[in-house]
Design goal:
Spore Coat Polysaccharide Biosynthesis Protein SpsA, Chain A; 8-stranded mixed β-sheet; about 30% helix; binds uridine-diphosphate-N-acetylgalactosamine; binds manganese (II) ion; Glyco_trans_6; manganese; metal-binding; transmembrane helix
Length: about 325
């Protein structure tokens, strides 16, 4: 058993075969010029590191030029998943068009669209090295199920098409648009986004699942941050483990007749409490259009559009 685990470790980190190692070894291209970093001056209005020493990404904490240089040299590939089931297909055009303008511009990007309406997927002109694949999925008469089943479909997508082929994956809500850069600064092993609705609240107020009978349970004195179900990602191996775990816990809960308060978002929050994200993205990476901008938000990169739930959800 011990030997097997060792082999798995080596196969994950051997640099010639698996790109995972690149996350640990950052090579700056020759001739790179960027502003001198300071060790005493920087953002002081926000916290940019977690208690487990993962970076929290805010505007003003990174050099986009440097990061693009490092990761372009590695020729990384990034997958993204987006689900547009039922009437949510109406959000897809803006999502894809704005992703072309802001999401990993200059990198190899492959967006997987999951929908029950493949004929209604809009034609969006994609740049060089960027493509969209449409995959049919069944509809459902419960939005909770559509949202939660994403974990199962992400798990399968990684197993069937991405593992050992693609470096990173991000899983995103479709009812949103990009407004600013979302790029290499967001890369990491396991990446989570702080939910814009609760980031100044006491942890006891977070909308975690509070029933101890659920596998998504988080006790009132526990929890670091409240993370979004609408955006998460990282290395495909890490996201595979996350999706597989959340799917199993969601399904096992269902067998016991319990559905967590915020479906897969609750399970994701439980997962991130135990498995600390190696990079945390600030609420710049998933804002909500109805929320007034806060002073610490210098740029909104991705934001949920205002929608009429009653008009677009199946239940
Ligand atoms: C910003 C954010 O973190 N949003 C999360 C939040 O509410 P939201 O209100 O943002 O959930 P939502 O209605 O956007 O549903 C989540 C996603 O599921 C897909 N979808 C949903 C319904 C439908 O009929 N068709 C369809 O395609 C679509 O990709 C949508 O973006 O809580 C949900 C859990 O319940 C999810 O965790 C969402 O990701
Ligand atoms: Mn949403």
């Amino acid at each position: 058993m011990k030997i097997r685990r060792c082999l798995v470790f080596f196969s994950l980190y051997r640099c010639d075969e698996n790109p995972a190692v690149y996350d640990l070894h950052l090579v700056s291209p020759d001739g790179m010029t960027y502003s001198q970093p300071s060790i005493v001056n920087g953002r002081t209005d926000v916290v940019s590191v977690t208690p487990w020493l993962a970076p929290v990404v805010w505007e003003g904490t990174f050099s986009a030029t440097l990061l693009d240089g490092i990761y372009q040299r590695q020729n990384i590939s990034v997958a993204a998943t987006v689900f547009a089931v039922g009437k949510y297909i109406m959000f897809l055009k803006d999502f894809l068009e704005t992703a072309e303008q802001h999401f990993f511009v200059g990198f190899r990007v492959h967006i997987y669209v999951f929908t029950d309406r493949p004929n209604e997927v809009p034609e969006v002109k994609m740049g060089a090295g960027r493509e969209v694949t449409v995959q049919s999925v069944p509809s459902s008469n419960r939005w909770q199920e559509i949202s939660a089943r994403r974990m199962e479909l992400i798990q399968k997508l990684i197993e069937e098409r991405l593992i050992n082929k693609v470096n990173y994956i991000f899983c995103l809500d479709v009812d949103s648009k990009f407004h600013g850069r979302w790029g290499a600064e967001s890369l990491g092993g396991l990446v989570s986004v702080i939910h814009p609705g609760y980031y100044k609240d006491d942890r006891s107020k977070f909308p975690y699942e509070r029933r101890p009978t659920s596998r998504a349970f988080v006790a009132p004195a526990d929890g670091d941050f409240y993370y979004c179900g609408g955006a998460f990602g990282g290395l495909v191996q890490e996201v595979h483990l996350l999706a597989k775990t959340c799917r199993k816990n969601f399904e096992d809960d269902a067998k016991d007749g319990i559905e967590a308060a915020w479906q897969e978002e609750s399970h994701l929050n439980r997962y991130m409490w135990i498995n600390k994200p190696s990079k945390v993205l600030s609420p710049e990476y998933l804002w909500q259009d109805f929320k007034p901008k806060e002073p610490e938000i210098k740029i909104i990169r991705f934001s949920g559009v205002i929608k009429n739930y009653a008009a677009i959800r199946p239940n």
